Amino acid sequence: MLIDTHAHLTFPEFTADLPEIIARAKAAQLEAIINIALDNEAINQSFKLAEEYPGYLYTALGLHPHEASQWRDTDYQRFQQLATRHKIVALGEMGLDYHYKLSPLEQQKKVFRKFLQLAQEVDLPAVIHSRDAAQDTLDILREENQGKLRGVLHCFAGDMKLGQAALDMGLYISFTANITYPKADNLRQAVKSIPIDRLLIETDCPFLAPQIYRGSRNEPAYVIKVAEKIAEVKGLSYEEVALQTTANAKHLFQI
Hints:
Blueprint lengths: L1 E6 L10 H10 L2 E8 L2 H13 L4 E5 L13 H11 L2 E10 L7 H18 L3 E6 L2 H11 L6 E3 L6 H9 L3 E4 L9 H9 L5 E3 L21 H12 L3 H16 L2
Parallel strand pairs: 1-2, 2-3, 3-4, 4-5, 5-6, 6-7, 7-8
Helix pairs in contact: 3-4, 4-5, 5-6, 8-9
């Protein structure tokens, strides 16, 4: 059994055939899916999906750094109330994205700090996004860690200075199917370096389809390709990777 720890099932790419997507995930032996909801509409939809598929679809809620400029001072209390009133398994995604810089960098940093503070306050793991921002991500993690920080670096980009520091803090590291891409040697080297008991797997769907499906929509069933590649790179059996990454996900998200 596998767990896709990062999917965006409320995105419009899934509107037409979501029941079929869930059916294919179950047929592929997925035990659970963590759905990442990033705006009010997506949050409400994710709650409904969690009710429709109890014990299978779980909700994490956050604000992508691209939309950090939308943060309002009242949002801290709003997310706090949502996190305590509903069955939320994580906060996020949250973090920094300096690749596109769609929100001002200082605003991204502010919102990232707020979410890290809130995650520790409500005792939920943080799902952390970091793209082209490794040093600032690391600095903020160190500064905001009150000794209660739990979480995962999602869609890990391969910077092992950040990766090792995250491991030292007790965080997990998650890989997507971009580890199957021919030019992703740096990611595969990171896979090789990180202990299996600290790894998670994800699709980040609808993005980052495995090489065999590249150019098409990604979906949770394809997370099997991530597990297969990790097994190949680390010289482990597929069953070992499936069992350990599933145990890791259950431990982090308490599902």
